[in-house]
Every structure is written in C-alpha cells, then in structure tokens.
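Notes on consecutive records. When two proteins share a document, each keeps its own sequence and its own token line. Never mix them. Below: protein one.
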Amino acid sequence: MRRWQGDGIYFGGDYNPEQWPEQTWSEDVELMRRAGVNLVSVGIFSWALLEPTPGRFEFGWLDRVLDLLHDGGIQVDLATATASPPPWLARAHPETLPRRADGAILWPGGRQAYCPSSPVFRERSLELVRAVAGRYAEHPAVVMWHVSNELGCHNVHCYCDVSAEAFRGWLRERYGDLGRLNDAWGTAFWSQRYGDWAEINPPRTAPTFANPTQQLDFLRFSSDEQRAQLRAEREVLRTLVRQPVTTNFMIGLGVKHMDYHSWAHDVDLVSNDHYLNAADPQGHLGLALAADHTRGVADGEPWLLMEHSTSAVNWQPRNVAKLPGQLRRNSLAHVARGADGVLFFQWRASRAGAEKFHSALVPHAGPDTKVFREVCRLGADLKALAEVRGSRVDADVAILFDWEAWWGVELDSHPSVDVTYADRLNALYGALWRAGVTADIVHPSTDLSGYRLVLAPTLYLVRDADVEALRRYVEGGGIAAVTYFSGIVDANDHIRLGGYPGAFRELLGVRTEEFFPLREGEQVRLDDGSTADVWTEWLHTEGAEVLASYTDGPLPGVPALTRHPVGDGAAWYVGTRLDEPATDRLVARLVDEAGVRPAAPAPTGVEVVRRRDGERTWLFVLNHTDAEVRLPATGVELLTGTPCAGELTVPAGEVAVVREDRADTSAVKEVP
C-alpha cells in the first residue's frame, strides 16, 4: 500500500476556490494558516471547468490554486473531478442518464446524473483522470488522490437498458448458466423461470413483490458497479502517480447500499464522511458507532475523516446548529476512535447553490465568529495530538456487521416491518457505550480470536463459513450473543430449514418452530422483570439453559433469553426485542462473563477510549454532560500540557487526552 505522507494529524476540508473570485484565494490561504489547516481537498466538482467542452482542458486556474496552496504550506488531496459530469455529456449522450425503477429519467441539474454502468461515462471520466493525473502527478502540493466523491450517494441504483445489460453480464459471471440462476432465485415460484438471459431485467416496478433474490442480487450488482468505477479510476492513477489513493465512504446507518467491506482493499487508506443526525439528542453515540465501524472496515488501521460539519448542514428537515464546544468534541471523538485526520465540508460557506446554507470552517459572517474561533482551537488541539498518529484503538468486543444481511433483512414480505437491521445494532452498541466499553464493528469473516465478546445483531443472512468461524470462536473460550431473526437464510435468501434460528441452532442450543411478531404498540413482560416488544417466537431449548421466559403475551412460559455452554465458551440467544434498561442489564452480564472492562471508570455521558502504539497509550475523555467529572489517570494532558497525578478533571462539555505513563493500562481503579 502507498503510505500516508507527512507528520501529525491532518486538518482541513473541501476547498472550492472555483466558486470565488481569484482575489479571495490569498485570503483563504492566510486564514488556513491561522487556523492550522494542513490539508485541503481540491477539484471535487470541477469537471465542467476543467473540461468545458469535450476534449478541451483548461488547467490554468487549478495550476494557480495548487501553487498558492503549496507556497502557503498547505497540502492537497487532489480529486479526479469525476463526481458529477458536465451538462454537455448528457446533451451529447442522453443514454448516460440514470433511470428509476418506474422508468423516470434523472436529469442534470443536481449531481451524479449518470448511469454507473454507462460505458460512455466510464470512457469520458477516465480520460479526465488521465489528464488531471498526468498534469499534477509530481506537483509538490499533492500528497493524496481523491477518487470521485461519495460514490453511489444519489445514483447507486439505475434501472435503464444499459444497466439491465450490465446486470445480465454480472449474473452470467456469478452463476455461469441459467439453471444455476433459476435455482438460486427460486423461479419455480410464481412462474418466473427464465429460458433466456435476455428475459432478465433489474427489479423494475412490478405489480407486487419482486423476486427477493433478484432484488438481493441487484443490490450486490449495484454496489459492485460503483466499486468498478472506483477501481477503474484507481488503476489509471496507479500508472501515473505515486501518492496514496482514497475515496470518501459514507459509513453510517443512513447509507446502506454500498458494501464497503468489499471496497476497503481498493484504496490505500480508508476515508469516511459522517454527519450528525441533528434530530437525535444522542447524536454523539451514532458518531461513535460510525467511527468504530469505519475503523472495522479499515481492519483496525487509522483512517481519515474526509467530511463532517462545523455546525448545521442544509439537507436535513431541520438543520440544527452545533452548540459551543460541540464542533471540537465531535471532531476529537473521531480521533479518539482511530481517525488520523479531521476534515470538513467545506472551507468557505458557498454564496450560491444547493449547499449555500451548509456550515463551513469560514461562515458567511466571516472569521469573527464562534465557528471560526472553534476551528482555530481545534487546529491547535490536533497539532498537540500529533504523537497519537498511527496508533490503534483498544477494543475487546466485536459486533458483527454485514451489508448483505442489512439488505436481506429489510426486503419486503417479511414477518414484521418493525424488524430493521439498525435497531438491535444501535441498541447493543448503545449499551456498550453507556458501559464505557469500546467495540470494533467488523465483518463476520473477520478473525475473532482477539476478542473477549462477540455480538451478532439481526444477522439474518449468513454464510456457512462465518457460522463455523463463530462456533470455533465460542468453542475456544469466547462469549457470543445472537439476537432474533438471525441465521434465517443462506446467501441466496433461501430459508434454512429445520427450525429457526437456522444456521445458529446448534451453536445456540435452541429451536424455534414459529415466529409470533407483536402488533404495533404491544408489549410483553419476562419473568426477570424485563419488558419487550415487536418480536416473540415459539422457542424450544436443545441444550441451552433458560435465563428468562415470557409471563404474558402470546407465549407465556416460553423461553425468551437463553445461554448455551459450548466448549470453553458460551453462546447466548436473545429471542425478543428488549427495552433499553433490559438491554443494558443483558450487556452488563455479557461483559462481566467475558471479562471485559472499560478503558477507565466514568459516569454516564462521559466517553472514554484508549489508543495504543506498542507500549505507549493515550486516554481520550469526552465529557458530554453539563457537569465537571473526575476519573483516574496518570500522565500528561496533551491539550493543556499539564501533568495529572492519579486523577483527571474534565470540565462540562470539554475533552482531555492523557499520555499515560504506564504500559499496563489493564488495571484500572474505581473512583472513590
């Protein structure tokens, strides 16, 4: 892999000088230096300016921008500029425009108005990549290359005839012959059997539920088509440039259609965009989950936060501004969980366009603002944290995550619309967060041997090899917990017969003969005092011990929570949707049995994470409460440069980072 360049933590954001008069550029560089910015992404949406007419390139303005940035000591993440085609492409080649499932054309005027399977778009975009890379491969400002931008954000699924032909080609590659496809798709149902490849289309709007495996394969195909664009641009770059290549993923529970686990090895470093859900007062918890997931996609290596916001965004129903201190706290939370760079969208807030009300490092009101003062403070903080770069995050817990399981569990015609993929993931992760326990969010095929506890929420679709890996993990002494509606189908979305939870029956020592989903608003109680809703099932034990049973509802006396000793470990099954207090108690029991301890004891609402590089460790403490907190720590507080001898005080809403002076951080003491 081509390695990151430079020292310290990257800080900056998207820089779009083409939106501004040239006399503004010098002021931009001066303000960047004042804020401590050391990296900006340039040229992301500049295709129409770089190639104003087909085959005619104009690089003069970009030459001047890169030279100015270099003279100011600002490094550049240079984009391939393919993120959105210019209007002339659609005019000359209307067949490149994407279509929805109902046949409606998506026209230019926004962004990403192209069919991802279009050979014309591919050809013209790669011509642009060759031109940009050929000109700037040796420019001293360029330290990184940025492929496209948020691939698949708006055009991940295209149902046009070009995409239909590409889908058929993808299916031929996957299945080889129609007999295997018909078997995988279960086409004996509803007289769907195909006799010619030309009969197959994407799952366009149909009279009723489309074939579920056809839907699943189209989702796989669509992710692969976006990945193919990434790989095509990367291959051009690797023939021309020496710097590392990345693209910005969108890992978080709002974007579900790209399988980033399969993309991760196509880039030299994993980058991610993350934006808070402004409607969620616990948005910092979702931030932590996304950061831990990004780290999991990066195989535990440090990663780059390519975009987040200094304050409000422009695309949510109600765009809530960040309160004083939140910009800094959010940014350092990403660093705590493995980010070695903190970048924003964008440098200067736009005067025009769809994102003119999106916050930036330099707001419309200019540098004499709360936002820019916090930006400058953050720049100083990141400079003080330079030594943390390259370290990894301590985590004894793994949460299994698979985009294909997410796609599968949320297909139509299922037992309950209330069963969603994010629900139990959020619930279990939230319980760990409140307990102060850090988790890696990883693919089921990941080596689990280094974890004390593994959680598998709603792993509806699972492969045999991953089931076997979890069994070996438990037999070897691991503790695992699986939630309801897991192990139900194979990779073709075919039911695993013999009783639920299918693939996990033997490991869990249980067998369910029938699902009993609950009505909207209906609740049940368990004999341990817990309350649950959404889901129950008629479960029998086959070796597992019963930990809790229903006392009311459709299945009184039937087990709801079980534990099955397997080898030197144990596998727990959670057969219902426990409420938050019950989920917290469950996770506390699992953590205790697995011998997992928090990085340091801390009160609720205080986030504590440890990064480690060999014998050196750093303790990050983020106080999300409105009260001062104290917790045990010994070392040097890097953000202030002051020593702490045994106890650390963190004011309300503030952040502390301690370089610990002991190698053994496993023994933590309780706060008196």
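Protein two starts on the next line and is unrelated to protein one.
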Amino acid sequence: MKRWVWLGLLGGAVACTKVPDRDPPVSEEVCPGTEALSLPGTARQSLNPLAGEDGAEPVLITYRPRVSASAVSNLDMLTESARRVGAQVHRRFPHLNTIAAKVSPEARRALEQDPDVLRVEPDRVVRAFGMPSPLSPSLLQGVLPNTSGSTGEYTAGLHRVQAPQVWDANNDGVLDDGAPSGTGIKVCIIDSGWDNRHPELAAAYLEGKDFLDGDDEPLDQGRVSGVLKWGGGHGTHTAATIAAQLGAGAHVRPGEEPNGVAGVAPTVSLLVARVLDVNGDGNTSNVIAAMDWCIERGAHIASLSLGSIAPSQTEEAAFQRAFDAGMVAIAATGNRGTEEKSYPAGYENVIAVGAIDANNAWAPFSQYGKDFVSLVAPGVGILSATIVGGAPYGDVDVGGTRFASEPLEYTGVGKYAGRMVYCGLGERVSSCGEGATCDGFVALVDRGGGILFKEKALNAIRAGAKAIVVGNNTSEDGAGNFTLTDPEDFWVPTTSVTLVNANTLKGLVGQDVTVDVSGLDYLRQSGTSMATPHVAGVAALVLGACPRLTHVQVREVLERTALDLGEAGKDIKFGHGLVQAKAAVDEARRICPPPAP
C-alpha cells in the first residue's frame, strides 16, 4: 500500500544542462518508509579540522630569527606572543621559525604590525590532483614482499615507463635476482592516507602518520554526518602505483588479471603521511609537517599528488629544507589544463610531473608552462588499487544475456532480481506507472530531461524500485560515467547502459532482470596525480641501482634519459619527456658500476 505525500522541486543543477520549468508541486503516492527521504544540497562538506570558524582564518606566521636564542626557545617566546594577541596555535615548525594558527582579523592585523613577524600568509587549502572514484598497521610490519606473480599484473603504464624491463627482463613474472626493484628505498607518500586492508600494500608499508587526526594510523577515513566512512582511495591508488607487489591480487573485475597489479618499484618501503581528508582537501601546514616527518624518518623520495594554484613562502622553505637534507621531492603539475604553475610542483627544487594519455599525447587537463614541467608519465585511465570494495562493478542480466554497464558514483552495492518496469525520464514517482509495486522491481530510466540522476533515482525508490538501470540517450560516451551527486544510505544498486542496450532492454520490459553491483578493489583513474607516482617509482629504481647518487644526480638522470616527446628538446607541455626506467637505471649503473665479483 502506498501513501500520499506532497512533492516539490528538488535542489541542484545539471552542469551544462538547462533545467526546464517544472509544474507546481503535486501530491504523489509513495511506498511506506520512503516518505521522509530527501536529497541534500550539493555543497561540499570539508572535513578539515583547520577550516575557519566564526571569522577565524588559518594562517602561517613566520618570525624573524633571533641569533641569541635556539630555534625551539625562540619559537616558545614567539608562540606566547602570538597567543597574547588571540592566535589559536595548533602547530609549530622550529626549523622554519613558523607557527600555524587560527586568527581573527584583529589578531592578524596585530601580528602584521609586530616587528618580529616576517610574514603572515594563508594556511592555504591544498587538494588532490586526481580526477573522479581491519588489521592494525603494526600487524603488517615484517611482511615480506612476493618475488613472483604474473606478467598480467604489468599495466600499460608500467610498460610505458619500462619498469618490468628493469626487474623482470625475461618477462616470466618473477623478479630477477639482483635487479633493482625498490628494496631499501623509502618513499614518503603525502596524500589521503591508505587502506590497510589491501593486500597489494601490506608488504610495502613501513610506518605512517595521520596529520589530521594526530595519530599513527594514516587511514583514508573520516566522519561524514557523524558516521565513519572510507575516503575515495586517492592515497591508496598513488601508493599502489609505486609499490603494489606481485601476486597479491584482491577482488578484480571479471576477466581481468586475478593477481591485480604490480607497482613500478614493487619492493620499495612506504612511509604514509595523511594530509588530505576524505574529500581530498588539506592545508599547507599539514604538508609542511608531513615533509618534516618524512625527513625525520629518512625518506629518500617524497611523492605528492596534490597542490594549490598559489605559492607559499613557508611551504617553499620546507621543500628547500627537504632538498638540503638530500630528498628527491616529486609533485603533480595539476589538472586545470592551463599554462600556469601549481605548488609544490612549481618550486625550483621539486620535480614537476605532467600527464600523457595512452598514445603519448599531452593530456588536455595537465597543467604546463615554461620552466615548469620536468617530466611526464601515464596519467589517463591508470589502473591501480583503491579502497577495498570501493570501485563498483555493474552487471545487468536478462535471461542469461548480460549487458555491460557502469555503476553510478555513490551507488548502493548489492544484487537484486525482479521484474523490469519502464519509468521514462523518471521525473515523478508516478513515471513508473502501474507496473511499480512496493514489493520491489527494477526501474529502467532514461537519461535526459534536465533532471538530476539523484532525482530520478529517488523517484524510482519512492515508487518501490530495489535496483535502477539508467539508459544513456547518446552513443558518444558509451554506458556513461554518471553520479548520484551525494552519498546516501538509501541508494539502491544503480548502473547505466549504452543507448543501444537501453533500446534492447525496453523491448524486454516485464521480464525478470538481475542487477548486480559489487565492490571491486581496483579502479582506473586519471590525473597528474596518477602520473606522479610513476616518476617516484622510477626514481626509487634509479636509487636502488646506485644508492650513492645524490638527489641532484637522480633528477639529472631521470631528465637526461627521458623519451623526448613533442618539440625537440625540453618543451612547455612534456618537459624533458616520458620517464624511462630502463634507460635511467642503465645510466645510473654507468655512473655507479656494480662491484666486481
């Protein structure tokens, strides 16, 4: 039995689509238990604890050094001075003579007038440069990496940067004895944390620090409306691109390599620093603190698939300190597709990495510029590990005939079999007609009409749908890549099919159909975020081949041996070219020949 409720306009907008005028609100009959379901606005909720409140602004306050005092005691005095004018100090950087604090406008003005203050600058937001999708860490320590697996784990990205040619020259799926594969090299991943349940990273994980929660477990988790949820897997994806080990597969898409993927440097050791929340947002002060931690832990390489369009003098000083300590810092150029710098990639002592596609063409989203891009690497459709169960896979089956589909972002996960009902554009609960029943059915909904997918889905759910299939209305983008906009507990398994398959399914309305949306442990993602760890992994192989190389020499080797793309020589989009592991390792060995037998 359905109940009557008043339904009005739902918030939100469709990008590049005009939402037509709607009829006035009407009362519609909905299934019991769905009356109170509602859609949120599209505002992004930041989980960063440093976000300003009540007019308070997060800033970095850098003081002039005092020759007569130690760095720590000097900062003690200056911290107290800042507190006296109302600054809420939450982090200190003695090596940089800097504190991070939240200040009112009045406190900021007072600090800027203090002769001891060198500068006050925003503790700016930094974001992940990816494009959208429990064992205790201590129990994982001591796990040895596998030395054998399958050549099916060697992704297209690995082949294009020549990684397997370095550690599996005979292509038999087994690491070659004595070949550099990352052993003994520490890479610090400064990102959104990781999923400690994923078998691809168990052997690589060495130690971690969460700069958001302040503990030693850098899990990619956060609270959304009071509920602890896993993040988008950005840090797991970048870490596995570097360090996924052979023969350690998890839940993969049917027909794909069961052992998962291999990393560029599959025996490297990872230091994981979490500085981004589950939305992919963080603050400059967290990045600085993470760099300090990486230095303290003896990291050889830092990989940062994040940044901001604005520079920070304090952050630049932190990267200079890392450079002085001998660390190779590698960062993404950014995804705005413009001729402008992002930071930290834009600092002089950081290797800036842009992205290319499967044809070695410049990826249109990849930022570029003169004296900016150093190297490029694969960054489009990169397959790597993600949050366990975090990559939905959709399957639509009618009488044994399967239809390829793409789950919508934020879809519910599960399997449902029932009669298929055609719901048109899904603009109302009544769109599903008399075939809809509160006992459950599979809703077939058309794309289009200027109606958000989340509206279509909620209308179908209110009509009793337990699963939803969206039919694309254009052939250009296949099954589509759509979203329900926001995570909600009431979403049901929702997946989309091509225009051709949608038309076929319309002829099968009334028959039983099975919709299965399950969570996979691997995901294809694009962005300069995905290109950066390829270069970090190659740098680890170079250092493994010749540990006595300085950080300056490592950069020179990577740039000198890159595959020249675009215009001859270094250019504004490709830099020195596509990073090449085999050529770089050969050059490193020339500089640092192996010891005589």
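For the record: DSSP finds 13 helices and 27 strands in the chain.
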